[in-house]
Design goal:
Order of helices and strands: EHEEHHHHEHEHEHEHEHEHEHEEEH
CATH class of the largest domain: Alpha Beta
Number of strands: 13
Bound molecules: magnesium ion
Number of helices: 13
Structural class: alpha/beta
Number of domains: 2
Largest sheet: 10 strands, mixed
Strand order of the largest sheet: 5-6-7-8-9-10-11-4-13-12
CATH architecture of the largest domain: Alpha-Beta Barrel
Amino acid sequence: MKITSVACQILSTARLQGAERYEDTAGLKFPQVASEGPRQFAGRTDIRHLCVYPADRSTVLVRVQTDTDVEGVGEAHAPVAPRVVKTIVEDLLTPVLIGEDPRSIEVLWERMFSTMRLRSHTQGFTLEAIAGVDIALWDVLGKHYGEPIWRLLGGAYRLRIPVYSSGTPGQTVDERRAGVVQVLDEGFSVVKTSCGRGTLEAQMDLVAAMSETVRDRGRLLVDAHGGFDLSDALRFVQFLEKLGNVEWFEDALLPEDHDGYRELTRSTPIRIAVGETDCNRYRVRDRLIHKECDLLLPDVCRAGGISETLRIAQLADVFGVSWASHVSTSTAVHLMAGLHVAAATPNCFISESPSGFADGPFGNVLLKKPLALENGHVTLDETPGLGVELDEDAVAQLVLE
Ligand SMILES: [Mg+2]
């Protein structure tokens, strides 16, 4: 069995007339200027952010074709500059892959990783490009053997995986309260809300409102997108402890503040979650050794695909740390790739579900068979490979190039 071609498609909502703008729904913009109004303390991170959030959604699908006519599909996280990912796949990784046996996933992963030890191999575009290829190879493997990926990973601890709502729609506190009610009514029992900009008091008011709205109908996750310095984060987490229904505090600090994470983790029983920016096992290893978190959030389409996310999950387990599958503004390929690893690892907490999956432009509309997201769970089945069958006509509507 040989790989005969590797091709990329950039999907973008820029192709759609009147499509939702991400900044309208997520409440995040970049560059994030200092918030209006007086601050009581200088916020070190007020003008920084984890990354750019563009107005249009984009992603890159990777198609691996073989000489047995089996085609695998993968996805590389590519919300910004998707042409970079496409170029890395086509110019750098494809020559490594053509003519090779697609079943040799471990070997091919190491070869792809070794193309760029000299530059940019630890995270970002290169790892996202490798992720797209790796997921496609696992899809090939599953289809070739007629087995779902979770079985090829060693079997499932569970097939019904809990998922949480990625965000709360709306800009104002009242709109976001309504957004929380909406996602709870849709069947989710775990809801994430973003914060981290503006005064500490304003952020407390916002999260208190979200917590009160969730009340005992579920659990709240709080994501600060790296917006606090350690001093504010320590005060904020003490406030979160008192709310009673907060499950984790995500990206409280900038990811490079390792000492800060260590101190924050030691300070509180609230789970300190980090890791969507950690794209390989070596970076995760250092975080685990230094006890910088209670929960890791690897993203399968950033962290080198199914192969590397599995290694990260297994490494975390050695340290007694759980993980939750991070999923971003992407398609069912991304969601399902993470869910297969989630099913096959004992220490997976929950998976993120992209906001607006039911009716958004990258969600069920791109699938021949909609993904069943019921009562805050997705159930994996026996479909070979990823279990995603794309509606190619619908996909074609979004192809930028
Ligand atoms: Mg996050």
